[in-house]
């Protein structure tokens, strides 16, 4: 298969991708694993509904029946989506896997819309239907206070401040930024988002005590150690994925057991690899798109903290973890769809379905935060912090005006002047026009001719 070509396994058609940076070889084996099983899923689903209707006695518990009915409705929708929804850009480990997360995205957005339309009290108490332990206000933990790295006041353990900050969020920071690097696929964008979020924590620590951290917790433990190490490992993984050969064979076409095991392991790696080249300064459209991506990433990060604050969910609750797992699975597809929409708008004429729903989810989460606790959101930001943000925004606007307007106008003016000068030079060298040397030569010839005539008239 030629470079730039790739073919999805199963029932997908051959497609071309001129931006692919790798060669993909696929023998086209269409096994049971890849075939569509719409009738099988329909038969199993129908049997389950018939069993509940005819063979199972309905309990006389309204709350239990309500929960079970909602869960059954969600499962039926997921079965429909997994078998019938449109495929996205990813095919490994299986297209149905990514269709499943697309349907989960729709279910989560519908849940957020439901919460948004409730009163603050009813919305918080509704969380008790998910977990009876929820719906109770919880104290926020602050990470500030004593910021001494070495505390001589505790001779038994002078480094106790460091050990107090070493909780479960440290490996979560590392793993989170490792995955974000695989999603964004750009070192500079990852570092900008990492540093910008620390500035946001500085700016908003008057609203959430959880944002109050020591300086070394911000810049050493978070930015340098956890985030920096995660970004470094992510970039190394990206380099390996961009260089590895992508050769796909059917499992039963591989003769050795070692090869079969290796093939099963590689099933959980990408089918092919596309290197992201964001080039934010290449055009105003790409620059605004990159700014929008950074803003959306930061807003989604802030939603993680504000949602659990306004809905009274402890940080270690499984719903917080499930939300992070959800964004891990949908983030990669969303970013690929955004990049395709930016890089090739003629072929990708509309934003991808997963990117669209993830953007909607991020906005809806923020609206829930605004509705459920407007007092916290509207707490005035300290004046010096406001000055810093205004200065940063003004600098970004000035650079945008200079790069995409003033600089471009200057370049166009210089190019026009250069072309005019080249055109005038070509006209001077054209036939019928004399340059300075020809004029000088003809002048000397006329002068010599007149002198000869004078000599002839002399006796």
Architecture overview:
Its EC number is 2.7.8.29. The protein has 15 helices and 4 strands. By secondary structure, the chain is mainly alpha-helical. Among the domains are: 115-239 and 281-377, no CATH class; 380-420. The chain has a two-stranded antiparallel sheet with strand order 1-2. Helix 6 (169-184) packs across helix 8 (215-243). Residues 1-18, 434-447 and 453-459 have low confidence and may be disordered.
Describe, in short, the structure shown.
Residues 421-432 have a biased composition (Basic and acidic residues). The chain is mostly helical and 459 residues long. Among the domains are: 115-239 and 281-377, no CATH class; 380-420.
Quick one: overall form? globular
What portion of residues is helical? 55-70%
Distance between the termini: 97 Å
Low-confidence stretches: 1-18, 434-447, 453-459
Strand content: under 5%
Q: Could you give the order of the helices and strands? A: EEEHHHHHHHHEHHHHHHH
Largest β-sheet summary: 2 strands, antiparallel
Structure summary, number of beta strands: 4
Average pLDDT reading: 82
* Rg: 33 Å
> What is the topology, as strand order, of the major beta sheet?
1-2
Number of helical segments with 4 or more residues: 15
SSE-based structural type: mainly alpha
Pathway: Lipid metabolism; Phospholipid metabolism; phosphatidylserine biosynthesis
Function: Catalyzes a base-exchange reaction in which the polar head group of phosphatidylethanolamine (PE) is replaced by L-serine.
Region (Disordered): 417-459
EC number: 2.7.8.29
């Amino acid at each position: 298969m030629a470079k730039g070509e790739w073919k999805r396994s199963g029932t997908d058609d051959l497609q071309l991708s001129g931006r692919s940076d790798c060669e993909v070889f696929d023998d086209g084996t269409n096994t049971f694993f890849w075939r569509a099983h719409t009738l099988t899923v329909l038969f199993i689903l129908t049997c389950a509904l018939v069993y509940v209707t005819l063979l199972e006695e309905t309990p006389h518990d309204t709350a239990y029946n309500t929960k079970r009915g909602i869960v059954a409705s969600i499962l039926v929708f997921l079965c429909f989506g997994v078998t019938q929804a449109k495929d996205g850009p990813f095919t490994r480990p299986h297209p149905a896997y990514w269709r499943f997360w697309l349907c989960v995205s729709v279910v989560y957005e519908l849940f957020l819309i439901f919460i948004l339309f409730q009163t603050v009290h009813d919305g918080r108490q509704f969380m008790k239907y998910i977990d009876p332990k929820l719906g109770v206000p919880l104290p926020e933990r602050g990470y500030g206070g004593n910021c001494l790295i070495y505390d001589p006041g505790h001779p038994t353990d002078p480094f106790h401040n460091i050990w107090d900050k070493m909780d479960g969020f440290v490996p979560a920071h590392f793993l989170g930024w490792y995955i974000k690097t695989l999603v964004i696929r750009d070192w500079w964008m990852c570092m900008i988002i990492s540093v910008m979020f620390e500035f946001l924590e500085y700016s908003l620590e008057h609203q959430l005590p959880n944002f109050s951290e020591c300086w070394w917790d911000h810049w050493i433990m978070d930015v340098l150690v956890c985030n920096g190490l995660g970004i470094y490992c992510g970039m190394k993984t990206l380099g390996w994925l961009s260089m590895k050969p992508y050769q796909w064979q059917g499992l039963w076409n591989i003769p050795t057991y070692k090869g079969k095991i290796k093939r099963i392991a590689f099933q959980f790696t990408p089918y092919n690899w596309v290197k992201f080249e964001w080039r934010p300064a290449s055009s105003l459209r790409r620059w605004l798109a990159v700014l929008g991506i950074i803003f959306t990433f930061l807003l989604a990060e802030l939603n993680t903290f504000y949602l659990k604050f306004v809905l009274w969910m402890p940080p270690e609750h499984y719903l917080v973890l499930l939300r992070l797992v959800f964004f891990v699975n949908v983030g990669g597809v969303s970013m690929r769809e955004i990049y395709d929409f930016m890089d090739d708008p003629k072929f990708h004429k509309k934003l991808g379905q997963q990117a669209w729903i993830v953007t909607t989810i991020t906005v809806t989460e923020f609206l829930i935060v605004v509705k459920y606790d407007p007092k916290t959101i509207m707490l005035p930001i300290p004046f010096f912090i406001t000055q810093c943000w205004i200065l940063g925004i003004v600098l970004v606007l000035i650079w945008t005006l200079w790069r995409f307007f003033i600089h471009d106008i200057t370049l166009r003016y210089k190019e026009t002047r250069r072309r005019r000068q080249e055109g005038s030079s070509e006209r001077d060298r054209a036939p019928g026009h004399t340059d300075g040397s020809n004029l000088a030569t003809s002048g000397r010839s006329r002068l010599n001719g007149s002198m000869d005539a004078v000599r002839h008239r002399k006796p």
